[in-house]
From TrEMBL:
Family: Belongs to the transferase hexapeptide repeat family.
CDD domains: LbH_MAT_GAT (cd03357)
The keyword Repeat appears for this protein: yes
Catalytic activity, EC: 2.3.1.-
Keywords: Acyltransferase, Repeat, Transferase
Pfam families assigned to the protein according to its UniProt record, in alphabetical order: Hexapep
Group of enzyme by EC: transferase
Protein's name in the database: Acetyltransferase
Domain of life: Bacteria
């Protein structure tokens, strides 16, 4: 169940701002990220700074995770990462959407959260965007600059706007 505590959100964003402006060494960054994101898993989790998140409490790591610089995690809903996941620079993962109907959007101001799940051994190329509700299967590779609007199976190479399966791997 996603955590959406506004007071905690502000505190974590301020901590993130300070981390993003730091000149810490890699080991200090890893320790700071583990505390900030409340990472409990075994294995290395490293996100090159700077990066951004919405809440910071709805990112779940299975271990051996790496994200290159300038990644964005809109974690209004849960983002679940399998083991051995790699993200290129400027990957964006969204879990929040809004009603398509303009009246609903204006009157209710609803945000609709749909979790994103990324399987084990996935590599997402730089500049890719993962949309709400997507599940990316294990061992899948996403080509750089792709926009993933639908779930993808295990063991495929997918690329494009919108991302389509190119071939099995």
């Amino acid at each position: 169940m996603p955590i959406r505590d506004e007071q905690n959100r502000k505190k974590k964003r301020e901590q993130l701002r300070l981390l993003n402006q730091s000149d810490y060494d890699r080991e200090t960054i890893i320790a700071s990220e583990r505390a900030l994101l409340e990472i409990k898993t075994e294995g290395t989790v490293y996100i090159d700074i700077p990066f951004q998140f919405d809440f910071g409490t709805n990112l779940h790591f299975s271990g051996n995770f790496y994200a290159n610089t300038d990644c964005l995690f809109l974690d209004t809903g849960d983002i679940n990462f399998g083991k051995n996941v790699k993200l290129g620079p400027r990957v964006q993962i969204y879990t929040v959407n809004h009603p398509v109907d303009p009246t609903e959007r204006l009157e209710k101001g609803l945000a609709i959260a749909s979790p994103v799940t990324i399987g084990d051994n996935v590599w997402i190329g730089g500049g890719s965007i993962i949309n709400p509700g997507v599940v990316i299967g294990a061992n899948t590779v996403i080509g750089s600059g792709s926009v993933v609007t639908r779930s993808l199976p295990d063991n495929v190479l997918a690329a494009g706007v919108p991302a389509k399966v190119i071939r099995e791997i």
